[in-house]
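Figure 2 data, in text form.
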Amino acid sequence: MIQISETASKKITALKQEDAKPADSFLRVEVKKGGCSGLSYKMDFDSAVRDGDKTFEAHGEKIVVDSQSFLYLIGMTLDYSGGLNGKGFIFSNPNATKNCGCGSSFNV
């Protein structure tokens, strides 16, 4: 399961509106090789669910993850911070044994 905080959901909604994305679009989260810790998170808007995708909904927003990426993301919480220490999505991933300082890459 992947959880989405209310703050992250609100930011996803705002970004969809800013980018004039269709109402049925959702956030696709993927894990790719790369980044300073070995694996990196990739996020983009999409509107097509593929075979094997896992779908998670909370606070009116949906996140979709492919089955391979899901293995690295089980139990993750997606949050968003807009505070003084920086803005951005925060991946609280219990599977990560090492995280990059910027929070965009990890290792298991």
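Caption note: The chain has one domain: 3-97.
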